[in-house]
Design goal:
Elements lengths: L3 E7 L5 E6 L2 H14 L5 H10 L4 E8 L5 H12 L19 H20 L9 H6 L18
Antiparallel strand pairs: 1-2, 1-3
Length: about 150
């Protein structure tokens, strides 16, 4: 059985990260690669890795479990250990994670654009730089600029 609950522990300060994976070996490899490249999505863990170095961290398997029990057992270990590097307080969810500031601004602006369209019966022409779109999901749309057209009545 290769699925289970794992821990990443900082031996310098005792801080921990608890996680679960269906394939533990692949998950450890993925964590290590992202941390070494400076691209880990957990900024708190990434900063500690950058500060203390790779040698300060140990990757260990806590328990092996069948995949259907992973989330509940991960939560149990999180409740027992109170890991400092876990961002989300609930296992298997993004609850507690913070939105990136520019994403919040774009959501806010899109809400105003929709309100404008409803109130005035037409769309506002908007321009979003290519660099901004590359950081967001706008790169799925194959046009250089976002242009909204006045609806046909």
């Amino acid at each position: 059985m290769n699925s289970g609950i794992y821990i990443i522990e900082n031996t310098k300060n005792g801080h921990r990260y608890v996680g679960s994976a269906v394939d533990l070996k692949d998950r450890f490899r993925c964590h290590r690669q992202r941390l070494c490249r400076g691209k880990h999505r957990n900024a708190h863990l990434q900063r500690a890795w950058n500060k203390y170095g790779e040698d300060a961290f140990e990757f260990e398997v806590l328990e092996h479990w069948e995949p259907e029990f992973l989330i509940s057992m991960e939560q149990w270990w999180m409740n027992m250990l109170h890991p400092e590097y876990n961002i989300a307080p609930v296992a298997g969810s993004n609850l507690g994670m913070k939105f990136v500031v520019h994403l919040i601004i774009i959501i806010y602006r899109l809400a105003w654009l929709m309100l404008w369209a409803v109130l005035y019966g037409h769309w506002y022409v908007s321009y979003i730089r290519r660099e901004s779109r590359e950081h967001l999901a706008y790169n799925l749309i194959p046009c250089s600029y976002w242009i909204a057209i006045q609806p046909v009545l």
